[in-house]
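Re-running the complex after MR caught last week's input typo. The corrected sequence lines follow. Everything else is unchanged.
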Amino acid sequence: MPMNSKIRFSKKRAWSHDLPISFLMQQGVENPGVLSLAAGLVDQNSLPVELTKKSFDHLFSNPKTARAALQYGTTAGSLSLRSLLLSHVSNLEEKSARELGMTVDNIIVTTGSQQYLSLLGEVLLDPGDICLVAAPTYFVFLGVLQGLGARIVSIETDEFGMRMDSLESTLGILESQGQLEKVKMIYLVSDYENPSGISLSQDRRGQVVEIAQSWSKQQKIFILEDLAYRELCYDGPVVPSIRSFDSTGETVILTQTFSKSFSPGLRVGFGVAPKEVCAAICDKKGNDDFGSTNMSQQVLATALRENFYYEHVKHLREVYREKRNYMLEAADTYFSNIPGVRWVHPNGGLYVWMTLPNNIETGFASPLFQKAIHEDKVMYVPGELCYATDQKLDFDKQPPIQKNHMRLTFGVQNHEGIQEGMKRLAKAVKSFI
Amino acid sequence: MPMNSKIRFSKKRAWSHDLPISFLMQQGVENPGVLSLAAGLVDQNSLPVELTKKSFDHLFSNPKTARAALQYGTTAGSLSLRSLLLSHVSNLEEKSARELGMTVDNIIVTTGSQQYLSLLGEVLLDPGDICLVAAPTYFVFLGVLQGLGARIVSIETDEFGMRMDSLESTLGILESQGQLEKVKMIYLVSDYENPSGISLSQDRRGQVVEIAQSWSKQQKIFILEDLAYRELCYDGPVVPSIRSFDSTGETVILTQTFSKSFSPGLRVGFGVAPKEVCAAICDKKGNDDFGSTNMSQQVLATALRENFYYEHVKHLREVYREKRNYMLEAADTYFSNIPGVRWVHPNGGLYVWMTLPNNIETGFASPLFQKAIHEDKVMYVPGELCYATDQKLDFDKQPPIQKNHMRLTFGVQNHEGIQEGMKRLAKAVKSFI
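Corrected-run output:
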């Protein structure tokens, strides 16, 4: 018997090796005393224990609805939930479903919005296809793109989000290099971007739809609008989604989740796309899992129908607004006297994006990260994870990977944890000034 | 603005078009009066409403465990659930985890076992790689393989399951054609195969491990053992799994689900694999969804810990044994006087595999299927869906696609539905004799 036969994995297996998220989680496990300003968990104490119980009891008080929740659902997700989602999106947009060009058939329920992002990538992207992203952007999605063998081209951002002039000039350069036909989508976290906390300005929301449409010369260039943080708005203007500027709904694919606004443990997210895209996603999802957990879909549908959900979101905005303020105050207290340190004041979401002087690197291997985690016992997400620069593209416009940022979250820690974490982090940073 | 730009999907999108499962479900929707002996749903009345409620109440009676269930879990799944799964498998095997060479680190929790099958395919199979399967076998897995662009080579079966002589001769032919290095796995539903109801004999379980090992000349050839129906045993011998014949656990990857034995609405399945394979699956799953629904994992863990689960399985065996008997009696009543019709008596699972005379085809386009669905208002799964024959392989040994079988299930219908369904089906069949 040959004993030395090796496992030969698929080629794409290598593309999802060494994900930064795994490294981060491992650091948390290996350093239990570390205070995490990195973990993307939500606030523990405001998790909707009572409202979930009320929803569950409501559902299980009737054997018929209880059995329906315990039986197989459908691949696209519960029809009653999808009807509620249609109203939900319609309310958020302050437009009728008809005006938005949406029906329940445009909606697919997934295991968090993460699965929607992944499925859309699977059906659209071949290895070598290009996705345009903001620099910085949601680093877990960069991992998804890498796992599919896609190429990631970064676009400059400023305080109003992705720059439209940079987007157009990049598309122009890609066209001149004969690569425009590889561009399949533009990914945008339009509200309170993870990690920067910045929202795309209203002007640019309309412009980006026009740009995507006018550059869809051979094949469709979609906008993938990730609205994970949409409902966590604390102050500042609430602007209409990019999707609302796309009257036919043929250009913008929207995705949202209930992980941030209700409970990540239910794993319910969804997306809205043209029907042809929905059919492709459903076929892939049919092979992958036949449909996401039916019981949590039914629990969430009950929470939406009985208004428990909306009650909770209102409460949650208060909780997170206070935590956001607390982190910003702690930043003032501990960082305002460190020269060259600045940070973004986010109007929503869960993150504070902090910039250090250019010469202080924040990456996993940096002296700062190592000191922070091992000596000062505090952890953050290195900003460089949120930049991807396509090495194959040789032109000026692509922004360089910036190595002097930190993504800090006020999501998981309580007030004391935020205070103590910021204090420890300032101590670590100061030692490198 | 160019208005005619087309959506260009990924190449692999085309591989999961026109799945038979979608067609079947569509038939159900379009023909609401049809009695389905096709749908893979489980028995509606025995769904564990009270036990799920007890588990949920138990979990939510303590704010700490309730919050943990509502928070993010980990990609591999809840550690407490995985510990319970280790004991669960160990009890079923009547061997200690140590004897089986299993730890919690070998276990990954997925959205049903379907997601495990799909993830394993993703990390092992490149387009053109080969998976060996029984003829007939679980048709939804054939869809997964096609979706990955894999090639499917069928192996003959008899009343003891996959024939080992055919397996060896096929491997020999593949080697002589220079294609052995493409073979990545052998897929086996060892207990009460879907669709045939046949179990792999104990002798062959040991043999197939030896065969896989001895033919792993260049790369590892895994056995993927799908034990979805393992706990639904009604009579006949309960034989040890193929995995139990693999003392190092390096060759056999096992997967099970709680969809059949408890509730498909919870969508909890799992798999046991070597650690290197687990790492690959976790990386892919991290990109796909970060982990399956945490709340249903915690509900199921409670049901296992409090023995509610085992209580339920005991009850379920009685329910399904009776329904199995009912369908076999109805087959006797309505089909025994039709010449050339025969069927398998299954000792477990959910299916009765019925064979018609050679000249009566059962496919979607066949006169029988059309008459059954439109006139007699009864639906079955055409047996030919459960056969895949690789067109690129040109040799005698590959069994032909058989077109005269039907997969009938006693899972979803009650006694009256089974009786009436079998009566209608016999009427349809008789008209073609």
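None of the earlier attempt is carried over here. The first strand of chain B starts at residue 35 and ends at 36. Chain B has two domains: 13-47+311-430, 50-306.
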